[in-house]
Design goal:
It comes from Roseburia intestinalis L1-82. The structure is a single chain. By secondary structure, the chain is α+β, with helices and mostly antiparallel strands. Among the domains are: 309 residues, Beta-galactosidase, Chain A, domain 5; 145 residues, Glycosyltransferase (Alpha/alpha barrel); 76 residues, Maltose phosphorylase, domain 3 (Sandwich), CATH 2.60.420. It has 20 helices and 44 strands. The longest helix has 21 residues. It is globular, with a radius of gyration of 28 Å.
């Protein structure tokens, strides 16, 4: 069942019913100011950091669902309705929501009155613009009222929802004409505030929530809206809001447009004390400048055109055309769009992440690089250095850090032993894309302490050596607190029967080992060695290559279980992910990474592992993480068995690592199987089951309930997932086979045999490559010939030359 459709021409998903299974959201913003907005106008805004600089409130566990946002109420006689249906939930005569690239358009009609709201964050600005156009479709003059509404957050989102004894006495506002200023904390900090304004005279306003809603009122029917008259309330203490009242008169067929601006304003240090600072009156100079840039509909329209141009240019760097419409749609639009959102958000703020706890992930952000480095290489460079600056001197790292402060998140801590190797993975992707080795010479702090800085190359060396020097009883890498699977905590024990588990301290071990990290070490160790050789670090390269060879042998000796790769050994040297286990006999992660690393390729192990994945882990909705699920709680395994069978790490379908299997299939040349794995979780290919899947049909979710769950096929945790980067990497670099390498662009497709081929345009280091792939014999993999600008080229890599700006490439498979 569908609740909308794709509009590829406009790069939009059009939602035709407000009653989607879950709120279907979009992200507004591309730099510092962001808004989350659902298909019914729910959501919130923040500046840079969703925890520390939250502009508006959102209640994740609220009932009814998604009932706080940026709303516009229309009071037409006795009828009250909203363009996006919520929160009044008045049935509309017509409704649509168009989620586009950085903007959303809501159109509602009731009793021949049409309201169209376009919401977006302009490029280079710190505000959300809401352009509201009202049209009288009837033959009579219509007189009605419009009430806007936002509820301000008191900046620190965690403190805002917990520290009531203080916060119920701190709310402060100022009102100047049609601009409402939320200045709570300005008395204390004197440098930032929020403004909510409209570009027209207003009939009234409200800034106090209780006054607007009424005692025990609800935002579905605020007292002010029901009565049709604002109270001109001024919040003092208690909960500040922003609401404007517009009285509108429309002749038959007439349209009027209003521009609302919700902005964040930060005065420079030298200006923050300007004005009557002694009594907390704000300096409005910057706000006036901001509002003046959007004080007409024409200015708002121009800003929207600029935003669309920004996205069109960004998405033009990699485009394809094939006989598969859904493939083209995902590669050209939605894959890359989601990759950019994960660049901006990491895992910090979605409808499943509150924006409070996680911040930016070390592992997460390194993986996200794989999906967006070709789009914004300069910002990717900056992100890599930001990540590295949170690393510790021994090569380990904070697992997460706050985006505003760039400080490690001590609440989450460290000890995830896969983290260091992801820095090598992200750096290799950056250098392959850009050819920029100068990043290796950048002086980079440890633990965000500038006094402790070395070259970035030294950070990579310590990352590699951290794994190399932390090996367990089988000479496999120690898992630490966990590896990629945060819930597989194998250094756990119970002091007494019935007691909860504790972790081993350093003096007691820990000895648990990870075959998955071993696969990472081999795969990304090869990149580390290649970078060392380029830098003239021959001795280090040889040391790395020797360690990699030894690790490959170790995996074959201690990590191969006969038909698949083991997952790990726990602290007591018990096998995890083995045919010897009662539950959890086979895990997806080592099968993907050990095959990607080509461990045991010549011995036939890679093919056997992929056959085992298909036999034991495959389902119609994707590949589950493990089988059989854990049917009881295992203290010695940590959190993984705390989930019911079929959910999350306990045999759920983790979309994030399905691409690992698809990539692994391309390693052994099985294009049909790689394609099957790709399409089973790809949003465009499963749009028809939206009533089962429930999350947005245009972006990936982190998890889908596995075959052992009652709700098999139901997705959760949409948008912010490493799935975005990995699926784009899979389809673009391994299925389509167009991937950057140190010496040039490689074209080595592994496609389903049904495809005749495809064409692609790929920008790479300032050169546009126009690629035609032909598959006359309908093979799955293999390059018979490559012609570059009319000349045959041996192999699959196009030697890079910056002299040409356009290169024509013809590849024939066979």
């Amino acid at each position: 069942m569908k609740f909308g459709y794709f509009d590829d021409t406009n790069k939009e998903y059009v939602i035709t019913s407000p009653k989607t299974p879950l709120p279907w959201i979009n992200y507004l913003g591309s730099e510092n100011f962001f808004s989350l907005i659902s298909n019914t106008c729910g959501g919130y805004s923040f500046y840079k950091d969703a925890k520390l600089l939250r502009l508006t409130r959102y209640r994740y566990n609220n009932v009814p669902l998604d009932s706080n946002g940026h709303y516009y109420y229309i009071k037409d006689g006795d009828t009250i309705w909203n363009p996006g249906w919520m929160p009044s939930k008045t049935e509309l005569d017509a409704y649509s929501c168009r989620h586009g690239m950085g903007y959303s358009v809501f159109k509602g009609t009731k009793n021949k009155l049409t309201a169209e709201l376009t919401s977006f964050v302009p490029v280079g600005e710190t505000c959300e613009v809401g352009k509201l156009s009202l049209t009288n479709e009837s033959n009579e003059t219509r007189n009605f009222s419009v009430f806007s509404y936002v509820e301000f957050c008191l900046w620190n989102a965690m403190d805002d929802m917990t520290n009531f004894q203080r916060n119920f006495s701190t709310g402060e506002v100022e009102i100047h004409g049609s601009a409402l200023y939320h200045k709570t904390e300005y008395r204390e900090r004197r440098n930032h505030y929020a403004v909510y304004a409209v570009n027209a005279p207003i009939a009234g306003f409200d800034t106090d929530r209780d006054s607007f809603l009424g005692a025990y009122g609800e935002n579905s029917a605020p007292e002010v809206v029901v009565n049709g008259t604002s109270k001109n309330s001024v919040a003092s203490g208690w909960a500040p809001i922003g609401s404007h009242h517009l009285e509108v008169s429309l002749a038959p067929g007439e349209t009027k447009t209003y521009v609302f601006v919700l902005g964040y304003v930060e005065n420079p240090v030298e200006e923050k004390w300007v004005g009557r600072a002694e009594d907390g009156v704000i300096n409005r100079k910057r706000a006036d400048e901001l509002l003046s840039r959007f004080d007409t509909a024409e200015k708002a329209d121009a800003a929207l055109v600029k935003l669309k141009d920004y996205w069109n240019e960004l998405l033009s760097h990699f485009t394809i055309s094939s006989s598969e419409e859904k493939l083209d749609r995902m590669v050209n639009i939605w894959h890359q769009y989601q990759c950019m959102v994960t660049f901006n958000m990491s895992r910090s703020a979605s409808y499943f992440e509150s924006g409070i706890g996680r911040g930016m992930g070390f592992r997460d952000s390194c993986q996200d690089l794989l999906g967006f480095v070709h789009l914004i290489p300069d910002r990717a460079r900056e992100r890599i250095l930001d990540i590295a600056a949170t690393q510790f001197e021994d090569g380990s790292a904070y697992h997460q850090y706050q985006p505003l402060t760039k400080k490690g998140n001590s609440d989450i801590g460290s000890g995830f032993n896969d983290d260091p190797l992801w820095l090598i993975a992200g750096t290799a992707a950056y250098i392959k894309e850009t050819g920029d080795y100068s990043i290796l010479d950048e002086m980079t702090p440890y633990d965000s302490d500038a006094s402790k800085a070395t070259t970035f190359m030294e950070h990579l060396r310590r990352s590699f050596h951290y794994t190399m020097e932390h090996l367990g009883p089988h000479n496999l890498p120690l898992i630490g607190r966990a590896d990629w699977n945060d819930c597989l905590n194998l250094n756990c024990f119970s002091t007494e029967p019935g007691e909860s588990f504790q972790t081993f301290g350093p003096s007691e071990g820990p000895n648990a080992e990870s075959v998955f990290i071993a696969g990472m070490f081999v795969r990304y160790g090869k990149d580390y060695a290649a970078i060392c050789r380029h830098q003239g670090m021959t001795e280090e390269a040889e040391l790395a290559e020797k360690a990699i060879a030894e690790m490959e042998k170790t995996v074959m000796d201690a990590g191969w279980d006969g038909e698949w790769y083991l997952r790990a050994y726990d602290h007591y040297k018990n096998k995890i992910g083995s045919k010897e286990c009662e539950d959890g006999k086979i895990f997806i992660e080592p099968q993907g990474f050990c095959v990607m690393a080509e461990i045991g390729l010549e011995e036939g192990c890679c093919l056997k592992a992929m056959e085992s994945v298909e036999k034991y882990l495959d389902t119609k909705y994707g590949i589950v993480l493990l089988q059989p699920p854990y049917h009881r709680y295992h203290v010695e395994l940590g959190e993984i068995s705390s989930y019911p069978p079929g959910y999350k790490e306990n045999a759920g379908i983790f979309c994030h690592n399905n691409p690992w299997i698809s990539i692994a299939e391309t390693v052994i040349g099985r294009g049909n199987r790689a394609w099957q794995v790709y399409t089973r979780t790809c949003p465009a290919y499963i749009e028809d089951i939206s009533e089962i899947h429930r999350t947005e049909p245009y972006v990936y979710s982190q998890m889908i309930a596995g075959k052992d769950a009652p709700n098999f096929g139901e997705a959760k945790n949409s948008w912010l997932t490493g799935t975005a980067a990995w699926t784009f990497l899979n389809v673009s670099q391994f299925i389509l086979g167009i991937r950057p390498d140190y010496d040039g662009l490689t074209v080595d497709p592994c496609i389903p045999s049904k495809l005749d081929g495809f064409t692609a345009k790929r920008d790479f280091r300032g050169v546009s490559y126009h690629i035609t792939v032909k598959n006359p014999n309908h093979v799955e993999k293999g390059v018979l010939s490559m012609i570059v600008d009319g000349q045959p080229v041996e192999g699959t890599t196009i030697p890079f030359s910056a002299e040409k700006k356009d290169v024509n490439v013809e590849v024939t498979m066979g």
